[in-house]
Automatic annotation (TrEMBL):
<protein>
    <recommendedName>
        <fullName>Protein MgtC</fullName>
    </recommendedName>
</protein>
<dbReference type="Pfam" id="PF21770">
    <property type="entry name" value="MgtC_SapB_C"/>
</dbReference>
<feature type="transmembrane region" description="Helical">
    <location>
        <begin position="119"/>
        <end position="137"/>
    </location>
</feature>
<dbReference type="InterPro" id="IPR049177">
    <property type="entry name" value="MgtC_SapB_SrpB_YhiD_N"/>
</dbReference>
<feature type="transmembrane region" description="Helical">
    <location>
        <begin position="12"/>
        <end position="32"/>
    </location>
</feature>
<feature type="domain" description="MgtC-like C-terminal">
    <location>
        <begin position="158"/>
        <end position="234"/>
    </location>
</feature>
<comment type="function">
    <text>Virulence factor required for growth in low Mg(2+) medium and for intramacrophage survival. May be involved in regulating membrane potential by activating Na(+)/K(+)-ATPase.</text>
</comment>
<keyword id="KW-1133">Transmembrane helix</keyword>
<keyword id="KW-0472">Membrane</keyword>
<dbReference type="InterPro" id="IPR048640">
    <property type="entry name" value="MgtC-like_C"/>
</dbReference>
<feature type="transmembrane region" description="Helical">
    <location>
        <begin position="70"/>
        <end position="89"/>
    </location>
</feature>
<dbReference type="InterPro" id="IPR003416">
    <property type="entry name" value="MgtC/SapB/SrpB/YhiD_fam"/>
</dbReference>
<dbReference type="Pfam" id="PF02308">
    <property type="entry name" value="MgtC"/>
</dbReference>
<keyword id="KW-1003">Cell membrane</keyword>
<dbReference type="GO" id="GO:0005886">
    <property type="term" value="C:plasma membrane"/>
</dbReference>
<keyword id="KW-0997">Cell inner membrane</keyword>
<keyword id="KW-0812">Transmembrane</keyword>
Amino acid sequence: MTLAAVQSFQLVPFLDTIISLATAFVLGTLIGAERQFRQRTAGLRTNVLVAVGAAAFVDIGMRLNGNASAAHVLAYVVSGVGFLGAGVIMREGLNIRGLNTAATLWGSAAVGATAGADFVAEAVLIALFVLAANTALRPLVNLINRQPLDETTTEATYELHVSASSEDIGRIREVVEGHLEAHNYAVRETSTEDLSDETTELTVVLAASTAKPGELEGVIAAVGRTPGVRHATWSMRTSD
């Protein structure tokens, strides 16, 4: 086994591997340092390991069977990084955290895979774009987030909540749907919940749309005047 390892050693391909892995290491360090500075889940070491690992797999594929083998290895690298990225995504109530971190891992893997395929200049270019997305775009994101929410233009999910007598809830459901159809609002789902022995709450979820709050206020006002209705309101949340 030792002799086979010695016989298979070739200086020029070995130097090429060093260049590929070193490039992935340096670029992964640049990407990871920014993540570590902001105390993200996947920091410096994670991004470096992803970049170097991707570079190593692609480089081995090229050494074994040229570009065709590297292309197959690259496909598996993409799938593997997808599972790794899914591990850093967490859901907290209605909020989802870690999407940007997962996307950065994709970027690090792309940088490493490109370096492993001996496209050093392209790897540097990809790394610059990843860094720009995480740094240069941050002021723009903050500026957009500080803007007041315009409910008339924001794509959102709207919910109508109607409390009524349990024996009248079927009839009231038809009334609500009739008012919504008159305003061309599509209903995604409806559900009911018994609040007491005599009161049931109807929840109607509209398909994500750019509804007009004024029209929904009119629908709620009309529903509220329906005999048997005890309370009617609507709420809005931005789509996930």
